[in-house]
Amino acid sequence: MVDPYASGMVKSDPYAKKTTVVGRVIAVLRGKMNNRNLSLITPWSRALKNGEIHELILTDEQDASPGKNVNKIAYLAFVEIINAGVIVFKDKVKLSSGKCIGTLAGFDETHMPNHQNIVIITDQLMTGEEMNLNINDLIYFTRD
């Protein structure tokens, strides 16, 4: 079986339209690392189902993308998916206030099948605690 992303068959974003995926914060995280060595998988997208729990991790490595490794990170939060859909490389990740946290860099499967690490590129590397996130805050994955 050939992975169309890894083989280079997919050269541009195939998603013309998609829903906004929403996650509800269920755990606010703290902690940073400079040597995490997350291995982002080559696929650009993941389907997230209602009720799934995933970990959000920030990086300020601006070249982070599918197929690359990420070292410098800050832990943001665990979220429960409350509006299912597909999230895609370069989606914007926003708080309910409208503040954009960053853009989706890719996915690390270290903890699968328990949860997916969803890695987000940001300009300011902050933890969820430093960002003053709260339980039940909403996080949106959107094209806008």
Keywords:
144 residues; mainly beta; seven-stranded mixed beta barrel; two-stranded antiparallel sheet; globular
Please characterize this protein's 3D structure:
A hairpin with a 4-residue loop joins strand 9 and strand 10. The strands form three sheets. This protein has a seven-stranded mixed barrel. It has a two-stranded antiparallel ribbon with strand order 3-6. The protein is built from no helices and twelve strands. The chain has one domain. By secondary structure, it is an all-beta fold. The chain has strands at residues 21-28, 32-33, 38-39, 45-48, 53-59, 69-70, 73-83, 85-88, 92-95, 100-108, 117-121, 138-142.
First-residue to last-residue Cα separation: 34 Å
Instruction: Characterize the biggest β-sheet.
Output: 7 strands, mixed, barrel
Domain count: 1
Query: Which structural class fits the helix and strand makeup?
Result: mainly beta
Give me the number of helical elements: 0
Number of strands: 12
The helix fraction, in percent, is under 10%
Average per-residue pLDDT, rounded, comes to 93
Element string (H = helix, E = strand): EEEEEEEEEEEE
Rg over C-alpha atoms, rounded to the nearest angstrom? 14 Å
The gross shape turns out to be globular
Contiguous uncertain segments of 5+ residues: none
Work out the strand percent: 35-45%
Q: Which strand order do you get reading across the main beta sheet? A: 1-7-5-11-10-9-12
